[in-house]
């Protein structure tokens, strides 16, 4: 099968400290991958590096997406090619409403005009599905939103942009049980045979409603073990100890 | 209306240069002969000439201010203080000479007048070329005319108020202003008359190596209300131009005045402007100010809360790019009990631009039960730009609520990354953040001017070095 994302021998540093030490990962359309690992293993770094965050330096290796080398592209170019990242701490941006922001980014990503009337209907529907307060779409982007509202707002943008690959960076952290269920439902709504999901998480709660194809254990900047969906459960019960030894 | 949309960029917008359209241009420099000649050219009464000569003496005695930006590039010997355009004042746009009319057409003035203004004044270099007001307002006793006409037609009113808010000796450039002032607007709103549409005066400085010294005097009588809009612009030349206007505002008991300004000077302009309001009992003075362009600006609008329960608000933004030093701020004097002031100042600096907030809060001993809140916010778009806050607070009574908050910081790279991860280019992401930062000011402006301000912000953002 054609690969959607192909990460090869990726090395990356932040503040002159190497965080990723030769990471390999390949994701095909239709798949759901999970990355788990102890704190500081490089999970969020991987997400940021794939998106070309300039705070990280790629020192070795390549990232291919949809057959193209995206290793050295700017973040916005990567996003327009169809990778979406749901942030652990979404930024608050005053002065633009969620609705106008979604309109702006949708036009930018699709290159087509978006009509507010159509968008409003669509947003109304998705807002309901995500159990969001309908007033949120007319409020400034993430400004004064609760942690849960911010995370749901990320899922809302994901549904609107309909990317080819979604990277969820600890979207479930800090959420209550109901919010996790809702987020999980949003991911299930998005998922189809031609797109893919990469979930970075500490817990299995978000995975319950999803068909997970692969679970990777990331330790010390490398994937040290890959298993199927049942691996998540096992890690939740037994922890990372045996993999940490492997990573050294 | 989506106020945050990115407009098409047209960098040529304000920079068009007309042919020098003057009928008379004063020899450069400043001395008694020049002051007498201006007075003669304007054919004005003796008392005005006397005031000019007195101001000139004060100007010559006062030292250059050294506490702010460096003004050494200003050489008064190279500045022509009076330039009369080849046009007489008209009350119909059709009678304004075509080339000058085109300038104001490009600036959107006649269109704005048709759509939402109650009256318009348009000044070109040193003289007003167009002034009009709706008939229904004339019937209510509202006066809106150019300052020269006001001196001739309403001498008693002018004498009573002129230079009484801003005295000749207040600082060097106000003295210079009174010595060579020309043009500007005069507004009188009688007791209880409330204007529901704004008046607007627009000042265009076209002639190179010259100065503009318009005088605006507004009297809003008891219980009356007015929204006045002031616009300014000039094309760019290689030599220094000077703007030293003066605005005097009298807001009588129970009256409301909203004074909105969008200044967009070329980057060779020295903008040393003075604006002041005296605010009576139960009256309200609202300032909204957008300062764009200029090489150096020193601009500190001031409210004197002289009557019990007087209020003032100031909402301002300035944007300093390469080669610019914008020194702006708000001054307020609480001189009566139960007075209130709210100050919100924002500045943006990029490409080495310097933005300084220089504010004054003076709460007099008699101003018990007053409150004042000041918040300053500086946003720097790179590492080479500067943003400073220099507040002076003089609180003369303990029985007062006073708060001062200042935040200065660089634009957040995290926020830029977040927006870029949604497909926006770096430029779009920065523009979105900057417009969001400016949004509290946009919200205070009428829609058309908010759009205008967003366009100016976009122009500043794409403008490179110089």
CA distance, first residue to last residue of chain B: 33 Å
Largest interface comes to:
A-B, 28 and 26 residues
The ordered H/E elements of chain A are EEEHEEHEEHHEHEHEEEHH
The number of helices of chain A is: 8
Question: What portion of residues of chain B is helical?
Answer: 10-25%
Relative strand content of chain B: 35-45%
Oligomer: heterodimer
Instruction: Write down the Rg of chain B.
Output: 21 Å
Low-confidence stretches of chain B: 1-13
Strand order of the largest sheet of chain B: 4-3-7-10-13-15-18-21-23-25
Averaged pLDDT of chain A, please? 94
Quick gist of this model?
The complex is a heterodimer of chains A (248) and B (466). With 248 residues, chain A is of the alpha/beta class. Chain A has helices at residues 43-50, 75-81, 98-110, 116-129, 147-161, 177-190, 230-238, 241-247; strands at 5-14, 17-27, 32-36, 57-65, 68-69, 83-86, 93-97, 140-141, 165-169, 196-200, 214-219, 222-227.
Description of the molecule:
- The complex is a heterodimer of chains A (248) and B (466).
- With 248 residues, chain A is of the alpha/beta class.
- Chain A has one domain: Rossmann fold, CATH 3.40.50.
- Helix content of chain A is 35%, strand content 28%.
- Chain A has eight helices and twelve strands.
- Chain A has helices at residues 43-50, 75-81, 98-110, 116-129, 147-161, 177-190, 230-238, 241-247; strands at residues 5-14, 17-27, 32-36, 57-65, 68-69, 83-86, 93-97, 140-141, 165-169, 196-200, 214-219, 222-227.
- In chain A, helix 3 packs parallel to helix 5 (147-161).
- Chain A is globular.
- Chain A starts with a strand and ends with a helix.
- The model of chain A has no long low-confidence stretch (mean pLDDT 94).
- Chain B has 466 residues and is of the alpha/beta class.
- Chain B has a domain at 22-299.
- Helices cover 24% and strands 36% of the residues of chain B.
- Chain B has eleven helices and 25 strands.
- Chain B has helices at 32-42, 46-61, 98-106, 109-116, 135-139, 147-153, 155-161, 172-180, 413-420, 426-442, 447-462, and strands at residues 22-25, 83-85, 119-124, 127-133, 143-146, 185-189, 199-204, 211-212, 215-220, 225-233, 241-243, 246-251, 256-265, 269-279, 284-293, 296-299, 302-305, 311-320, 325-328, 331-334, 340-349, 354-363, 370-380, 386-395, 400-410.
- In chain B, the strands form three sheets. A ten-stranded mixed sheet of chain B has the order 4-3-7-10-13-15-18-21-23-25. In chain B, strands 14-16-19-22-20-17 form a six-stranded parallel barrel.
- Chain B is globular and about 60 Å long.
- The two termini of chain B are 33 Å apart.
- The relative contact order of chain B is 0.11.
- The model of chain B is unreliable at 1-13 (pLDDT under 50).
- Chains A and B meet through helix 2, strand 7 and helix 3 of A and helix 9 and helix 10 of B.
